[in-house]
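Write out the 3D structure for:
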Amino acid sequence: MHLARLELQIAVEEFVTTLPEFRIKDGFKVPYYVGNILHVPDLHLQWDSASA
C-alpha cells in the first residue's frame, strides 16, 4: 500500500511537470471535503498565457 501511494505521487508529480504553468483561478475558493479521502469536487484553473 505504501509503495502504491509513493508510485502514484511520483506519477502525478511527473505528469504536472509536463503541463504549462497554471494556478487557481483568481477569486475561486477551493471546496473540499474530508472523510476517508480528501475530496475536491471542483477546481477552476487559470493557465498562464505566456507559457501556452
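The mean pLDDT is 87.
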